[in-house]
Structures are given as C-alpha cells and as structure tokens.
From TrEMBL:
Function: Removal of H(2)O(2), oxidation of toxic reductants, biosynthesis and degradation of lignin, suberization, auxin catabolism, response to environmental stresses such as wounding, pathogen attack and oxidative stress.
EC code(s) of this entry: 1.11.1.7
UniProt keyword Transport present: no
Name of one Pfam family that matches: peroxidase
Major site of localization recorded for this protein: secreted
Cofactor mode of binding and number, as noted: Binds 2 calcium ions per subunit. Binds 1 heme b (iron(II)-protoporphyrin IX) group per subunit.
Segment forming the signal sequence: 1-26
The protein's name in its UniProt record: Peroxidase
Length: 341
C-alpha cells in the first residue's frame, strides 16, 4: 500500500492489509496530532476497570436489543463528524445537535446514560461521555461479529452543542462529494469505503431513498444503477408519498443482515450486485479506488475487519478534547454547570 503521508506509528494500529488494496493511497495509523493514550483509565486514573464496566453494560443491552450496534455506530458518526468526538451529540437542549433534521431518529442515548450512571457510582468524575461512546460502540461492533479494535482514550467532553453546526450530508450525495466531506475531517478514501460498511446493519426511513426509487435526479424515473428486481421490491416497502401525514416506513439497510444485526461482508456483495439501499453506498462502484476497496472487502471478511478496526480508530481521533479542554460531565445530557451553550 502506498502511504499518502507519514504518520505517527502505533504498532497496535498498524493493521496489515496484506497489500491487498495495493493502489489505494491511504493512512495506516492515527492522524496527527495524537493526544489519546492506550489504556488511559487503567494506567493513569483511579478507574482502572472503566473499559470492563462499559463492556458489561453493552453486553446487557445487546442481549435485549441487537439493534444497539447500529444505533451506537450512527450516534458516534453523528458526534465525531460535526465538532469532533466530544460527546456534544449527547447534550440535551432546545437547539442542541440532536435536534437537527439530519439527526432525526438517533438512538442509543439510554445505553450511554446507563453506562455513565454505573461509572459515576464506581468512579465519579473520571470517565468522559466521549470515551464512553467510543468504547461502547467498539464493544457493540464486536458483539455483532466485527473486530474488537483498540480504542485510545483520554477524551474530554465538549460544552457546546448547536443544531446549526450539524452539516452531515444527505445519503444521496455523489461519491466525490462524500470523499470531499471525509477529507475535510482528516480521513481518506479507504476510510470512506470502510466506514460505509457500517451500513451492513441498521435501518433507514423511506424518505431517504424515495428519490432513487421514483425521481432520480429529477428524471421522474428510478435510479438506473439499481438492480431492477431490487428496485421493484423496495418500491413495495416504500410507496410514493402522495398526501400529507403519510407514513414513513423503516427499511433495512442490508436485507441479508436484517433483524439479526450482524456485521458481515454481505453489504459489499450487495453493492457489487447493484442492490444498495442508499445512493451513497452504490456510489462505491463509480470510482476506481472505491470499486477496488469494495471488491476486496466483498471477497474477504478478514480484510474488512482489519480495515474497519483502523478506520473506526481514525474516526475516533477527530478533533478530540484532552488535557484541560472541555470537562468530564457528570451527566452526559448536560454540561456540569447547566444546559448546553
């Protein structure tokens, strides 16, 4: 693999991709500056078993509701890609990030609240909500069949959360637009191709795919890149909206995973067969780099596991607060001295 730039080296994150994606220019470790630490809580705080406490609670939630993995993945993405991985998405308020239209339907808050409650009993004022969200997502991904990747910790929590700051893109954007957005967060094309694999599980509302099914690019016709039989199947689940107040059903992003909520390479196989639900996922076929990534992941689950581990760690490193910045919230929904700013 060619390196696009020199990066700080961490043996735990230098995950060998076996030169399988030989022509894709991509990073192989965390982006600088790296402010987080491996086993921060065990080595540098009084809460030595913080990660074990988080893992236990996630296991309890997952046994009751396997959709927790998809919920936490989306919640972490919605946090990190806005102001950085500072848990600002968790803050309540009349104009907080969670009220933005792009964040409608977010879940996983109850799980984070419970984990925080347990940690505040065990070791008050030590573990940040930002770290809880990253650790809980990792553990949920592993339970769903994904990698148990290392999470560097030591994040602190932000104190500002504004809906106006949320610029998460539409799931109908082009591949080029998606890559530009990822690059603006310090990520690259391999991160894009890899992190879209989170759509191997979970659900979306029909409103996000109606354009593909009925009026692609204002043509009055379906997206020609969709497999015809699959498009017919999706139109049965997502009828055209012809009147006010019409329901907006939920559909599975990956019908093969469906209610099992398993992390597999089947998402990439569906992309190759033109059976993606979201338009941005189908866009993986339309550039040489993302096509190569898709083919590699569809052909070998181990390649996907390794790359997903690295890209999740890189996403978790976006604009983190450390040192004296931010705070350690006592309640993930509120800053320590009041409501969100």
């Amino acid at each position: 693999m060619r390196r696009g730039q020199k990066r700080v080296f961490f043996p735990l994150l230098a995950i060998a991709l076996c030169l399988c994606i030989a022509n894709v220019d991509a990073g192989t470790t965390l982006q600088p500056p790296v402010k987080l630490k491996w086993h921060h809580y065990r080595r540098y705080t009084t809460c030595k078993y913080a990660e074990e406490f988080v893992r236990h609670q996630v296991e309890l939630f997952w046994k009751e509701d396997r959709s927790i993995t998809a919920k936490l993945l989306r919640l972490l993405y919605s946090d990190c890609f806005v102001t950085g991985c500072d848990a600002s998405i968790l803050l309540d308020g009349p104009d907080s990030e969670k009220t933005a239209p792009q964040n409608r339907g977010l879940g996983g808050f109850v799980a984070i609240d419970k984990i925080k409650e347990v940690l505040e009993i065990r070791c008050p004022g030590v573990v940040s909500c930002a770290d809880i969200l990253n650790l809980a997502t990792r553990d949920a991904v592993h339970l769903a069949g994904g990698p148990a990747y290392p999470v560097f910790t030591g994040r602190r929590d932000g104190v500002i959360s504004k809906a106006a700051m949320v610029d998460l893109p539409s799931p109908s954007i082009s591949g080029g637009e998606a890559l530009t957005y990822f690059k603006s967060r310090g990520l690259d094309v391999l991160d894009l191709g890899t992190l879209l694999g989170a759509h191997s599980m979970g659900r979306t509302h029909c409103r996000y795919i109606l354009d593909r099914l009925y009026n692609f690019n204002n043509t009055g016709k379906p997206d020609p890149s969709m497999n015809k039989a699959f498009a017919d199947q999706m139109r049965k689940q997502c009828p055209q909206r012809t009147k006010k107040g019409q329901s907006d059903p939920l559909v599975f992003l990956n019908p093969e995973s469906s209610s099992k909520y398993t992390f597999t390479e089947s998402f990439y196989k569906r992309v190759l067969s033109y059976q993606s639900v979201l338009g941005v996922d189908q866009q993986l076929l339309f550039s040489n780099d993302t096509l190569q990534i898709t083919e590699e992941f569809a052909g070998g689950f181990e390649y996907l596991r390794r790359s997903f581990a690295l890209s999740m760690s890189r996403m978790g490193n976006i604009n983190v607060l450390t040192g004296n910045a931010g705070q350690i919230r006592q309640n993930c929904r509120y800053i320590n001295n009041g409501t969100p700013q």
